[in-house]
Amino acid sequence: MKLLFTAIVFTLLAPDSVALADKIAAQLGAMEKHLILAKSQPPETKPAPKKNPKSVKKKGIDKVISQQNTFPGEKTDFNGYDRYNKVKTASGHFTVICPKVAAPGKPWLWRSLFWGQLKEIIEADLQLVEQGYHVVLAFGNVHGHPSGNANIDATYHELTTKHGFSKKCSMASISRGTLSLFTWASLNPEKVSSIYVDNGVCNIKSWPGGKLIAGSGSVGSGDPKSWLGMKKTYGFTTDQELLAAKISPIDKLGPLAKAGVPILMVCGNKDTVVPYEENDVILEERYKKLGGSIEVIIEAKGHTHGMKDPSPILTFIKKHTPPSSSE
After folding, report:
1. Domain span at residue 271?
2. Could you tell me where the DSSP H helices lie in 69-216?
């Protein structure tokens, strides 16, 4: 534009130089055309760098893991796996140990008391986690009272409706944790794929009753403090009331047998706390009479938990795990 103005002025000042002005105007027209063409061309772009397929795949897997393992509880590292502690529910809380990648159908193992204190139990369960299982710690009532079912119910609802977990869970217990297991399982047999009990309390006359309670018929050591706590929890005032109550796991087998829930018992034949003859033997006999499927493994040990070779336990749990969450 500046050149065009100069050309016009020049022409006005020098009429005898019209030819020169025409030449300048032609040059300006060519320059303007060039500028228009330049503006219409897209900016030069460099080719996008090629993505590494392995890197893309890894990022995709990491995203899936992040999405499937997200819970609102406190996140910690547990032997290389994500652990969420005290995830709140409508009736309490639960803790969950997550696999790197969940197996199809999102299978899970329910656990109760003492789990974090037993190395062999943890190591066995982590083999399931490695294979895509979640391990869930959701406590019921320590005495097996039905009031403890509310927390397990809320945990089950949370996991199956909000996180896509299988509608059936494998259940496992240690010692007195067996009381709450059978209290919940017997009322929800359709939600249980299998039960594994390790030196579990199956008969309250044996524990917490034991030889110190008259009329118990037990040779076990018993636990007077827990016996008193159980009486209080159930609202009994005498030993005879508690002895007569049908609240032991051996009294809650009917619905489980009818539903076809398989049971595995691991027992110590030298257990003086929860004697094998007063607990596992009775449960096995009653379950078989009801038509239930039960396996019993007897080891030469006392009241300890876990197996040095947990293969039979893991095989049992996986064998009875539903293939998809819809079952």
Report:
1. 71-203+248-319
2. 119-130, 149-162, 177-187
